[in-house]
Amino acid sequence: MCVSLLRMAQMTPAQLRAQAEAALEPLGQRRIRLLADLESLDSELRPLIVAARQAEVPLRRITALTAVAGGTIRAWESKARENGPEGLDDGPASRAHA
To answer: Which residue stretches of 1-98 are H helix?
Structure first.
């Protein structure tokens, strides 16, 4: 550990920033891909969840089955009531963060 600290002390701030960015990039890119996959999955889930709520599936049961937050489900239901089913699939803006 002392060697690592000594090496870091010899690095310029620009080198330290570059090293930090290089460490962040792989996981950051992975997170970006996962968020895109999640948005795609949410687009498929939205109409199914709204239909499940119309069929009186309890909110807690849906959250247990999907890991979608109750507030998000309520937002999707509200949006479906306001805009109809076609209003559910309008991209990232339709995703409620609850």
So the answer is: 2-9, 13-54, 59-66, 70-83
